[in-house]
Amino acid sequence: MSFCRGNGVPTHVLYADDIMIFCTGLKRKIRELLSIFHRYSGVSGQIMNNAKSRFFTGVMSGTRINMLATMLGFSMGTIPFQYLGCPIFLGKPKVIHFRMITDRIKNKLATWKRRILSIMGRVQLIKSIIHGMLVYSFHVYLWPRRLLRLLDSWIKKIIWSGDVLTKKVCTVAWKIMCQPWDKGGLDIKPTHMINEALIMKLSWDLIAQETQSSILFKKRYFSNGQPSMRYFKSSVWSGIKIHIGVVLSNSLWVVGTGENIHFWTDNWLGDTLVDLMNIDVEFHGQMKGMVLEVIVNGTWNIPKAISEFGDIRERLDVIGIPHNQLLDVLVWKPSLDGTFSSKIVAISCVLCHRCFLGRTQFGVLLFHLRTPLFIGDSIIERCPLMKIFDLVVALLCRFAVYA
After folding, report:
1. 223/39 Cα distance (integer angstroms)
2. One-character DSSP codes across 269-331
3. Distance of CA 303 to CAs 264, 281, 294, 306, 381, Å?
4. What is the spatial distance between Cα 138 and Cα 116, in angstroms, rounded to a whole number?
5. φ and ψ of 252, to 5 deg
6. What is the CA radius of gyration of the chain?
7. Is 141 exposed, middle or buried (0-12, 13-18, 19+ CB in 10 A)?
8. CB atoms inside a 10 Å sphere around CB 44
C-alpha cells in the first residue's frame, strides 16, 4: 500500500490484544486478508470477534462501504474514536476531541474532595496521576491552549482548596509554585509547557531517527530536508510544524558518511549554506544534493565558488571527515552531551517563563557555537531567572544585557 512518493504504509500495528491493519479496499485484498485470519484461527484457536471489530475508510461511496461490511462481517466505525485512551481524529486538534480526557480528569479530581489530604499530598497526586493521564496524548497532539488553561485552573483549585469547583485566594503566585524545590516552588510544571516540550521531543525524533515512522513523516511533510509550507490535514503535523523550526535551528549535524545530510538546507557548518550564501527562500526547494556527494576519498570536493564564499573555507577546515564509515548524527546544541531531553526543555521553560519571545521561538536555551561556555567579561548581566545556571548558553531574552 503506497502512501506518498513511493513510501509504503505499515501493514499492521500490534499492541496487547489489539491489531490495526492497513490495506487498500480492493476485493482481492479483502479476500486475502480474510484468508489470513482463517488460517491464523485454524493454527492458534483464536477467533476474531466481529462484534468488537470495526473498519474505517477514506472517501468512499455508500455502495462500496456496504460491500466491504458484507465481506468483512463487521460494521464500519466513525471518526473520531478512542484507541488505547488516545483520540484518533482528522484535522487540527480541537477542544471537543479531548473532552473525554478532560472529563475523566475532572471526575478524578472531584473524588479527592472527601479525602483528608494535605497540600503536599494533593501535589503528589497531581504529578503522578493527573500528569500521567495527560502525558500519552501530549506525546502526540498539541492541545488547544484554552483547554490547557482550564486544566491548570482545576489544578490550582484542587491544590489550594481541595475542591475542583471552589476558588480560593492564592497566597503564593502560580509562577512561583512552578519553580523547582530549591527555588521555593512545588516543582509543578504547567500543562502547556509539558505539552510543548513533548511535541518538541516528537519533532526531534522525526528528524534525528531513521525509524519507519520518521521516514514516513519526512517523505510526507518534508522537501529537501525542510518542512513543507503547504497545508496538510493532519492532527499530528499541525502541532509539529509549530516547533519544528526551533528544533532545526538549534540542531547541528555531525558529518559521518553524509548520506543523511542535505548539502544546502541542513545545518552542518554551524549555519545552513543557503543562509551563509544569502540564497533567497524561493530557491530553497530547488537546492538539492547530499553531503555524501561532495566527499571524495576522505576529502572535500566542493566547487571554489562555494568553498571560497565568505568564511565557508574556515568552517570546512574545522570539520573532520571520519576515515571509517560512521553514521551521521544530529546533536542538540543546548545540551552539553548533544542529546535532546524533553525534561530539560520543560524545566528551562518553567524557570525562565519571562524569556519567551513567542510560541514559535519556544525554548530559552538557544545555543550558538560562538557563545562562550563559561561566564566571562562579555556578558555583564543576565536575566535574574537564569542565574541558576552555572553555564552560560546564548539567551534570546530581552531581559538580558550584553556588553
Report:
1. 42
2. SSS-HHHHTT--GGGGGG---BGGGGEETTEE---HHHHTSTTHHHHHHHSPPPSS-PPPEEE
3. 13, 22, 9, 6, 44
4. 30
5. -140, 135
6. 26
7. buried
8. 8
Q: What is the pLDDT of residues 250-301, one digit of tens each?
A: 899 999 888 889 999 999 998 999 999 998 888 887 888 899 999 988 889 9
Q: Please list the alpha-helical segments (H only) found in 186-270.
A: 191-208, 212-221, 237-249
Sign of CA dihedral 201, 202, 203, 209: positive
> Any idea which residue has 560512521 for its cell?
326
Q: Tens digit of pLDDT for each residue in 119-163?
A: 888 888 898 899 989 988 999 999 999 999 999 999 988 888 888
Q: Give CA–CA dist 29/35, Å, rounded.
A: 10
What is the residue extent of each domain of the chain? 2-78, 86-188
Would you say 376 and 391 are in contact if contact means Cβ atoms under 8 Å apart?
no
The pTM (predicted TM-score) of the whole model is 0.77
Q: Where are the alpha helices (DSSP H) in 20-118?
A: 27-44, 62-72, 99-111
Give me the helix-helix angle, 191-208 and 342-351, nearest 10°.
140
Q: Which long-range contacts (CB under 8 A, 24 or more apart) does 76-85 make?
A: 81/54, 83/18, 83/20, 84/15, 84/18, 84/136, 85/136, 85/137
Strand pairing class (222-223; 86-88):
unpaired
For cell 474532595, the residue is 113
Closest to 8 in 3D by CA, of 228, 231, 220: 220
What is the rounded distance in angstroms from the CA atom of residue 328 to the CA atom of residue 255? 5
**Beta strand 295-296 pairing with 299-300:** antiparallel
Q: How far apart are CA 58 and CA 18, in angstroms?
A: 21
